Amino acid sequence: MKLSLSVALCLTSLALAQEEADASRWGWNNYVSSKSLQKNIKLPNILRHSHKLLEHSKLSNGTRAFGTKGHNATARYIKQLLDRTGYYNTELQSFPFFAWSGTSKFSADGKEYETRTATYGKAGEVTAPVVLAYATGCLAANFGPAIKGNIALIKRGDCDLGLKVAHAGTAGAAGVILYNNVPGSFSGTLGASPRPEGPYTPVGSISGEDGDALAASIAGGKAIVGTLIANVVAEDRWSSNVIATTKRGDQRNIVMAGAHSDSVPAGPGINDDGSGTAGLLELALQLPKFQVRNAVRFAWWTAEEVGLVGSRYYTAHLTPAQNQKIALYLNFDMIASPNGGFFILDGDGDTFGTSGPAGSDHIEQTFKDYFTSAKIQNGTAAFTGRSDYGPFLDAGIPAGGVNTGAEGIKTEQQAAWWGGKAGIAYDPCYHQACDGIENLDTNALLVNTKAAGHAIATYANTLRGIPRTRNQTVTRRSSSLHSELIGFDDGCKHDEDVKV
Fold first, then answer.
1. Is the pTM of the predicted complex or chain greater than 0.85?
2. Which domains, ranges and CATH numbers included, belong to the chain?
């Protein structure tokens, strides 16, 4: 009996010693604050992650598109660093998803057109007359008998691209050429198939100027024969979200923050969204120095660039109880655009008229408080649903975040406030091969990482202002992952609707 008591006392002593060591290691006696967490954020550490992401892209010919070796290396890198802290419960949420890549070429009447492709279009080569669809092709009735066996010319606008192509497919079109409803070229996604409206065909997209001229010639009675060549590689790929939740803190009140870890196939994505990925990773590595009252969960989403797939998968698989435990979601997508601004998502809807669930207004104000204290002018970005906060809005979870802009054009006023050049895009390398290290505004990267730290630290301490009882009946955009993807006219374009 004395031996058992001695052993028990020894084990208790060892447990207390381990508890003290963990307390020292994890900062359990030192609650996080905005000031203390920001103080630990250093630009060289963030950039170290950025350089790692660039290295990963070299494993896949300069890309970190989901399911590639480059993206898988990014996911492993994030998880390995987090596992070493011992501060988080981490997981790879892995699932298969249909991957698509391709190119399109279109010529007509002896002219080669600058042609882009549309994700999920079919492979094929067709030479046939080019025939106009009525209106913008959003109704089956817009495709007459003349479409059958020919190439349908369809104007962008009014509905998603996939619906237009599906109607054309049902009408028997051999191919589809989409043209922009504004000057310039564009590329987009049809959304994954199958869909009930009809089958997809080979697809290409041309500029508004070229499309208008071609449509005018056809409407004027000129017979035009075109050749469309669509080269496509399609396959199922396994990919993973990386999820890390603090072991301490109230697990019934989870403060969640996320960024997408994949790039487009065209480049390494060091700003889009390597900037958010690196910034959040460094925050997650510094948070273990502190204690949290509310649990904090970090997420790095896969396959955002093909339709928010990772975040949609995550929210679609939440039970009602798991949904309720997530107090709010903070999104960080493109936080270091080289010609960018400082934009806060319009949580209260007072700028763009579309607000988030109750509590989103408080998140917006939290970020405003940060920029005010830093004496930085801020602008507002609309809740367009084109980044990973979108599925959280659909799930009824308060959301917010910051970004620096994508393909939108900087105004003279914005240039006066933030520097840079008016009249060009916030990120001229958006979705291109040149989105590398040199494409980062390192000052914006540091400022916005600290803004993320301010919000995370604030809510890790208190959720005052964030409703904690929500209606569990949530209206989603559709009932399945694949059908949800259909509703995106241009895939992931991020939040180009911004105001100051």
1. no
2. 29-87+247-499 (3.40.630.10), 101-234 (3.50.30.30)
